[in-house]
Amino acid sequence: MSSELDLSRLAELQDLLGTQLSEIVATLLNELGRALQDIDAALAGRDLDAVALGAHAARNSALMIDAQPFLARLGDLESCARRLDVTSALAAQQRVTEAWPPLRRSLELAVAGDG
Q1: pLDDT tens per residue, range 5-54
Q2: What is the domain-level CATH number for residue 56?
Q3: How many structural domains is the chain composed of?
C-alpha cells in the first residue's frame, strides 16, 4: 500500500463501479485538481466560505481512496476556513499544496501498474 492512498480502495472502486482503473483515477485527478484550483482562487479572494466548500469537496474525493495525509491536511484547511482564520487557512493551503504532488503521483503509478 502506498503511504499516500489505499490501493485496495481503488480495486474495490473498480469492482463496485465496473469501471476501468484509468477512468477512476482520471475522475479523481480531475475532481481533486478542480477543487484545489477553486481553493486557490477562493483564498486569493479571501472567500473563506468558498475555501471551506472546496476543501470539503476535495475531502469527499480523497475519502474514496483513504488518501492520508492529504485528507488530514484538507480537514485542517476546512476547519481554518470555517473559523474564518485567513492566516491559518493560508498555512493549511500550503500544506495541502505540498501533499498534492505525492498523491497525484501515487494515483498515476497505480494506473501505470495496472496496465
Answers
A1: 777 888 888 888 888 888 988 999 999 999 999 999 999 999 999 999 99
A2: 1.20.120
A3: 1
